[in-house]
User: Fold these one by one.
Assistant:
Number 1:
Amino acid sequence: MAEKQVTQYADVARAAVKTAAVGKPVVAMSHVSGGLDQTIKGILDDGNVPFLQGTREGLVAIHHLVEYSRFLKRGRTVETPAGKSPKTLPEILEGLKGKRRVLGDDKAKKILQAYGIDIVKEVLVQSGDEALKASNRIGYPVALKGLSPHIPHKTEAGLVRLNVRNGEELNAGYAQIQNNAKAFDPNAELEGILIQEMVPSDAAEILVGMTRDPSFGPVVVLGLGGIWVELLADTALRLPPINSDDALEMISELKGKQLLEGFRNRPCGDVKSLAAVLVQVGRMAVDLKEVLISLDLNPLMVLPGEGDPASSMSSWKSETLNLF
């Protein structure tokens, strides 16, 4: 820096220090990532004014400072409840002892329902005739999903058929799923084929899950569901337990939140019920932290409307589930 520049920016640094002395947070930031003249840096250091270098790095640091401030303020307020544990929690924990594998759909969904998380109407069948009766009872269109403890990712193995509209399509889809299961893994055991009601097309596909970080422990994950989670990598994370305020913040952080806000004349999604699901998944992550490694609700279908988060959360439906 030229001598005149040093003099000029030294005056700016002194002004920053003077402002910081009144208790207002002050930082100095340079768009240049190179070094700073030691005279100016000395003034800032002596006045306890942080100096940030680089536009992106500096703005990210300021963002984290603001978020940390909000976190501290939330800690000083009365928080809303962070979920409700089921009365059957001791039995659930006992049933999960010693299991280090993918939990079957039936057992996993019973755990979800114990936490107040609804599942679509469904019937597990073992034959084409049973599939036809179940489909007539549920009502077309239906979804077909082959269940195997050895094939956790159904779509990749070709074990999913959606929008099955009649008996002819049902028979064809049933046979195809059986063939695909054998082709994918000849040794895989097919427990049956699940017949499920189809969720309305105006529902938004969302991912809600939990994973275990080696340093921080359980982490609740929210993102766009279906194929979009891998394509856009649009997610929000929180350490459980979380309350409804935390859940709504997570939803607001999604770049694709417009899908829940009436994008391109789509109906607005039931954000309150989605937040209630996040709270309950956070509670589950805490309650089962010793046995639960990861949880994957994808896609979680958020229906239009504004539900009552204190009720059964029936405004959304889970189409697929992997509980490890």
Note: The chain has a mean pLDDT of 84.
Number 2:
Amino acid sequence: MCRGIEVSVPRQAIAWFAAGGPWLPARWEGVHLVPGEQRNRDRWRRYWDKASVSYDRQMQFCDRVLLGDSRPWVCAQATGHSLEVAIGTGLNLPFYPAGVELTGIDFSPAMLGIAQTRARQLGRTIDLQEADAQALPFPDASFDTVVCTFALCAIPDERRAVGEMIRVLRPGGLLLLADHIAGATWPVRGLQRILELATVPLQGEHMLRRPLRQVQAEGLQIERRERFKAGMVERLAARKAATG
């Protein structure tokens, strides 16, 4: 998700290098929240509920200058019963094949409300739930496809989130990811690191992550991978090993 913020660096620079949003847990079963953590969680929910009003407009710029055709590239490969993690306002919905049975989760109820309206306008039935990417509320091996676009950059524990996506993916299923990542050259990475001084404390957004490494560490087979925009955007399709 690409969620703009107000900081002292140029707004266009933020939009260019940032393509995600905070993903703080909405389901905390078995997790003890100290008062500060509870306040922080509530603050982020209020912030993104408010930001949902302008989210689509901000995304038009991000898609045009940075993300390219990543949404259709990812979603066109989905099949069967599919889960989209961090579905936001449902901007990916027009790009899923008609036969896909879709479930979507997000942290922000307001975002989910917009996604539901978009689904109705498209004539698509979708199961939308408020849930935590780090503790998905689904049994093991529930989905044929799992999709996550431009959100791992801001999930507090992105490794745990990737592990959860793989857990709920059926054997032989496909994991589809797109995100902004550490650039291919040191000047780009240097600028990203400077931007992180604002985006991490204000938005929980990291510029230098690389989900590919976690996917490979989990043993998935990379079937397709593309990296572009000075190496700052990467999208991939990875297959979970079939059993038997």
Note: Residues 3-35 have pLDDT under 50 and may be disordered.
